[in-house]
Specification:
The chain is α/β, with parallel strands linked by helices. It is 41% helix and 12% strand. It has two domains: 11-220, Class I glutamine amidotransferase (GATase) domain (Rossmann fold, 3-Layer(aba) Sandwich); 232-340, Homeodomain-like (Arc Repressor Mutant, subunit A), CATH 1.10.10.60.
C-alpha cells in the first residue's frame, strides 16, 4: 500500500505531546532533530518542507516529567485545530502498568487530529496512549519488547510486534509506531524521508550520527521464560533447565523427571510457557551463547559446543534465525569495545 502523501511544500506542523510520564531523552531528542534542521552544520538548506515543532500538552506552562526534569509546554491541545504529525514520546510505566482513562481530553484531541489527516506516531511505549484511542484496534504496531506482554494484556485487540523497529498501519499508513528506546532515531528519519525526502534524511543521520536499525530489534531482546502460569510441575522443569539446558536430550530428561507422560508434559509445557519444550531449550541456549560472545574471546564453535550443540553449522544457523545476526556479527555489535574495558 502506498504511503500517505507528504505535506505540501512549506511548513510541516509537528505536535510533540508531553505527558507527566514522558521520558526526557526521547522527547527532547525528537525535538532537537526535527526542530534543528535549518541550523545544522553540514546539512544543506532544505528545499521544500520545513518542520515546525511544538511541545504541546493538556495545559501550557511548566511540567515535570518522569525523570523530574521540568519542561515548558508551549501550547495546550485545545489551541491546536490541526497538525500534520502528532508524536507521543516514550513513557515510563509504573510497576502496575498503564492505567487507561487518565487523559480523556488528550484522547479526544488525538482522534480529532487523526480525523483531520494527521499522522499519529508513537516512540517506544508512547503507543500505550495512542492505543487507547481505539484507532489501532486490528492494526499492527510495535512497542518496547520489555512492555510487550503488558501491552498485549492491556490492548488485546492490537497486534504487537516488539521485534520490529518501525511499523506503519492504517488506510493511509498514518499510524506509525517505533519500537524499543533509541528506535526513535528510525522514527524521525522515517518522518524526514517521508515529508522532505530521503536525501535530507541521510544528511541528518550523518550530522547526528543516528543509525537505522536495519537488523530489527531481535538482537537486543533477552529471552525470559514465562513463570506466572501457575503450573507447578512445569515451573519445576523450567527451574531445572536454568542450570541443565546444555545436557544431551534435555526434553527427554524433563519428561522423565516430571513423572508425566511425554504427550501430557509437552502439552502442558507449551500451554504454560507459550513455547514447545525444544524451542524453550533453544532460546535458553542462545541466550547463554549471546552472553559468552559479549564477554569472552572463546571461538564461536566452542561456544556452540558449551551451550549444547555438537554441530557448529546447526548452531550458527539457529543463532542467526533467533537473533537475526550471525554469531560473529553479534559479537562485533554487542561486545564492549577495547577502549571501554577496565
Amino acid at each position: 500500500m502506498p504511503p500517505a502523501p507528504a505535506p505540501a511544500s512549506g511548513s510541516c506542523r509537528v505536535s510533540l505531546l508531553a505527558l507527566p510520564e514522558a521520558a526526557v531523552s526521547t522527547l527532547y531528542g525528537i525535538f532537537d532533530v526535527l526542530g534543528a534542521l535549518r541550523r545544522l552544520p553540514g546539512v544543506p538548506p532544505v528545499q521544500g518542507t520545513q518542520f515546525r515543532v511544538d511541545v504541546v500538552g493538556e495545559k501550557p506552562g511548566p511540567m515535570k516529567i518522569a525523570s523530574g526534569v521540568p519542561i515548558d509546554v508551549r501550547l495546550p491541545v485545545d489551541a491546536i485545530p490541526d497538525s500534520d504529525i502528532v508524536i507521543v514520546p516514550s513513557i515510563w510505566l509504573s510497576p502496575e502498568g498503564w492505567r487507561p482513562g487518565r487523559y480523556p481530553r488528550l484522547l479526544e484531541w488525538l482522534r480529532a487530529m487523526h480525523e483531520r489527516g494527521a499522522l499519529l506516531c508513537s516512540a517506544c511505549s508512547g503507543i500505550f496512549l495512542l492505543a487507547e484511542t481505539g484507532l489501532f484496534d486490528g492494526r499492527d504496531a510495535t512497542v518496547h519488547f520489555d512492555y510487550a506482554r503488558t501491552f498485549s494484556q492491556t490492548y488485546p485487540s492490537v497486534p504487537i510486534h516488539p521485534e520490529r523497529v518501525l511499523v506503519t498501519s492504517g488506510v493511509r499508513q498514518e499510524l506509525v509506531s517505533s519500537g524499543a528506546s533509541a528506535s526513535w532515531h528510525d522514527l524521525v528519519l522515517y518522518l524526514i524521508a517521508r515529508c522532505a525526502g530521503a536525501t535530507l534524511a541521510q544528511e541528518v543521520a550523518r550530522a547526528f550520527a543516528l543509525q537505522w536499525h536495519h537488523d530489527g530489534l531481535a538482537p537486543y531482546m533477552v529471552f525470559q521464560g514465562r513463570s506466572d502460569h501457575g503450573d507447578a510441575e512445569i515451573l519445576a522443569a523450567q527451574q531445572w533447565l536454568i542450570r541443565h539446558f546444555p545436557v544431551g536430550a534435555p526434553v527427554e530428561e524433563m519428561v522423565r523427571r516430571s513423572r508425566l507422560s511425554e504427550r501430557t508434559f509437552k502439552r502442558r509445557f507449551t500451554a504454560a510457557t507459550g513455547l514447545a519444550p525444544i524451542a524453550y531449550v533453544q532460546r535458553l541456549r542462545i541466550e547463554e551463547a549471546k552472553r559468552r560472545l559479549e564477554r569472552t574471546d572463546d571461538p564461536v564453535d566452542e561456544i556452540g559446543w558449551r551451550v549444547g550443540y555438537e554441530d557448529p553449522a546447526f548452531f550458527r544457523r539457529l543463532f542467526k534465525r533467533t537473533t537475526g545476526l550471525t554469531p560473529g556479527a553479534y559479537r562485533k555489535r554487542f561486545r564492549i569495545p577495547a577502549f571501554a574495558r577496565p
